[in-house]
Request: fold
Amino acid sequence: GNSVTQMEGPVTLSEEAFLTINCTYTATGYPSLFWYVQYPGEGLQLLLKATKADDKGSNKGFEATYRKETTSFHLEKGSVQVSDSAVYFCARMNSGGYQKVTFGTGTKLQVIP
Amino acid sequence: DAGVTQSPTHLIKTRGQHVTLRCSPISGHKSVSWYQQVLGQGPQFIFQYYEKEERGRGNFPDRFSARQFPNYSSELNVNALLLGDSALYLCASSWSTGGDDGNTIYFGEGSWLTVV
Reply:
């Protein structure tokens, strides 16, 4: 079945450090890929998305590139801030059929001053 | 514009009771989906409704049911609550039904259900 695997956390970084959160997905069909962010006690916010191979999603300094050859969608940010502390979820959704988003288990990021 | 709105935001129920959670989609969105997020895990798909019809169902028991109204709002009902039903229930909306390119799904803040 469809699945998403992301690196386990927590990830602790100092402010202004470089961030990478790895994510791989099963290659069934032609999925759209997403990163969602969840701040403590809140719902999910869409961070960025990519709908086809080689697309790059970007938002608020975060980037991720849809890599079909490696079935990956790694999240990166060049310089993290304390306000980026949250849980990040990688997700996929198949094209066609009904909507079902399959999420990874989430990676908690803590940025310390 | 208002986002996806859910109510109630928090509630506590006793085992065996019934609960109804409500969701209003973003204006213009006709698809509503429900997800369950247990603490420390990613959300799990429960249902998708589009134009008042169930379009997809996840691996949840029949105690879970939902419906969508003519104004596209939706209710999630859970009967015979178990302790394991304690979770954040998220509603999501989008403008169409499929996983088409560019069809983004937007989530609400969720309803926190605690079963004691």
About this structure: Chain A touches chain B through 28 residues (CB under 8 Å). DSSP finds no helices and twelve strands in chain A. Chain A has a mean pLDDT of 92.
